[in-house]
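Hi W.,

Here's what went into the run:
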Amino acid sequence: MTLPQLQTLADELKQLWKLSNWAVTVKWMPEEQQEVKGTVYWGRCNWEGNNETADIEINPNQSSKAMRHTLYHEMVHLRLEGHNCDSFYERGIDLIAGELCQ
Ligand SMILES: [Zn+2]
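Here's what came out:
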């Protein structure tokens, strides 16, 4: 997928998921952040709840299908407005994202 395609999808999900007040910008993840201490990151969502702005970074080194899944994953995070490093929580997010992006 291209960045404009990912941005279009994010804009569509914003409308569908009651996030239309948010300014969501999709970006490619900088190369130095794609792998940190041996862990590969496929996506990242940085948001400012007070300003309702979010940057979603997508690792470009994945298939289009995987990018789509990653975008859904990060958008689910935004919808829930919660993020932590709990692996069960992450798996739950990922399962939901996987089902939604079918
Ligand atoms: Zn996550």
